[in-house]
Amino acid sequence: MKKSTFLVLVISCLFAYGRNSVTAKKPNIVLILTDDQDTILEGMSPMIKTKKLIQEKGISFENMFVTSPLCCPSRSSILTGMYTHNHHAINNSVEGNCASNKWQRESEKQTMNTFLKAMGYGTLFAGKYLNQYGINETGGPQHVPPGWDKWYGLVGNSKYYKYTLSVNGKPEVHESDYKKDYLTDVISRYATSFIQSRASSSSPFFMFLSTPACHAPFTPAPQYKDMFNTSKAPRTPSFDVAGGKTKHWLIRQTPHPMAKSSIDFLDNAFRNRLRTLLSVDDLVEQVVTMLDKTKQLQNTFIIFTSDNGYHLGQFSLPVDKRQLYEFDIRVPFLIRGPGLKANKTLQSPILNIDIAPTIIELAGGQAPKTMDGRSIVPLLNDSNVEESQEDNKVKVHDAAVKWREDFLVQHSGEGKMKVEGCPKLEPGFESCEPDCVCEDTWNNTYSCLRKLSSSQNFMFCEFRDKEVFMEYYDMTKDPHQLSNIAKKVNPRVLVPLHKRLEALTMCAGDTCRQEDDNDDDT
Q1: Chain centre to alpha carbon of residue 215
Q2: Which residues, at least 6 apart from 312, have a Cβ–Cβ distance to it below 8 Å?
Q3: Residue 520 confidence (pLDDT)
Q4: What is the pLDDT of residues 503-516, one digit of tens each?
Q5: Are residues 168 and 219 in the same domain?
């Protein structure tokens, strides 16, 4: 062999080795989580940059659901990949296991970041963690959850100003100076600084950014305070519609029609929610720009989603979540990253419990058997998956990727002995504003079976209350859930639905995924 030919072969081999060693590096992963951002009530409308930088560069899922429409239970599911009945954080209270000592001893030790940390990932968390995190009863800001190298956790619930952060276990008090303290921007600065610091690192990173927007108190950045001045909350077919006798007890208590003050309140909340999201849109742009500037963008997965949906006047409930209806359980889900097709939309139903196993598989690992959810990587990677939606029926045209067709939604109602400012209310209500219209109560406790397949599209719910109340909706004929037909159908129709719901409420880990595979037409 001629010397020149030999040199060419050697150089070619070295180039190929170098290229493969670069692509073999595990990907970075960024999870951006908003608070209370819906999809049905125009929650994504202000996210112009996010749509351009994530949705148009990757894949969006039209049917992304949370398995519990409330902050702490949903966030606990995102972290652990478990249904509420397995991680036991059933509501936003310490008594409901939100960030409690029990949570810290058990579920917190098996969150997705602990697995990524063990796989060699550098990890950062910034923003809202769990509603009761950092208070004295749960260990104060000195408690840093395991598996985080950099920890900037918000003490308590979402705020934009006048809050305390736990900075790696040390309390840092913030006031009301926009340039220093506006929380969404503070999170963005932590993120871009961390990205810069990882540019020359040989190990990958996982970054979890959890913004306060668009949760109450809906405080926009000053430059956005006059945006959307003429906007009003969407007047959907269920807006200010009385529950009558067809809905569960709490809905039947709502005054109808709503007071003008309540409508004014929710319209103002709608505008401010959109305004706060503009700062999240800026955060997304700043993160993507810094990843690109440091030449890390092409090896980074970015996921954008929310912890639950929201309602604004639907069934005469002014502002909150906690309900079984679509506006409270549907959230956005966007993902971009290496190898993913651009500007593709999928219809397969995915859940918040799928996020943890998905991230672990993207990182090159295998989700633990304790996780109830399943990785969506097969859906992301299979270029043969073709989906369409016709007549409100989802059709997945690929037998190679078997996917769930139903899932569980759960909520455990909260109530207080006394609601401040509402002396006429009996004990047992929660979240009663404006005008003492309450969004939750002890008997707002339910389990639901949501079926979404090519042949069936329905929601069936059972309440744990004195009435043993049920709600059943044909989602094809009644997408706004106006007509509860539980008492109109033959009772025999509900028997298999009850059995299926019972099986899901008892599943754990592998058995949940087996239930996914067993969800033949119910």
Answers
A1: 13
A2: 41, 233, 234, 266, 269, 270, 318, 319
A3: 61
A4: 999 999 999 998 78
A5: yes
517 pLDDT tier (thresholds 50, 70, 90): confident
Segment 287-312, tens digit of pLDDT: 999 999 999 999 999 999 999 999 99
CA distance 274 to 483: 30
Tell me: do 361 and 467 sit in the same domain: no
User: 3-class SS at 38?
Assistant: coil
Domain limits at 466?
408-517
Could you tell me if 342 and 448 lie in one domain?
no
CATH number at residue 215: 3.40.720.10
Active site (catalytic) residues: 71
**Antiparallel, parallel or unpaired: β 122-128 and 150-154:** parallel
Q: In what order do the strands lie in the sheet with 457-463?
A: 406-411, 446-452, 457-463, 470-474
Side chain identity, residue 37: Q
Number of domains in the chain: 2
One domain, residues 291 and 155? yes
167 phi, psi to nearest 5 deg: -100, 95
Are residue 425 and residue 376 in the same domain, yes or no? no
Residue 358 sits in the same domain as residue 436: no
Report the predicted TM-score, pTM, of the whole model to 2 decimal places.
0.93
Q: Are residues 78 and 190 in the same domain?
A: yes
Q: How far apart are alpha carbons 6 and 259 in whole angstroms?
A: 85
What is the rounded distance in angstroms from the CA atom of residue 207 to the CA atom of residue 288? 13
Whether the CB-CB separation of 200 and 25 falls below 8 Å is answered with no
Q: Are residues 434 and 345 in the same domain?
A: no
The type of residue at 154 is L
- Measured CA to CA, the distance from residue 77 to residue 350 in angstroms comes to 13
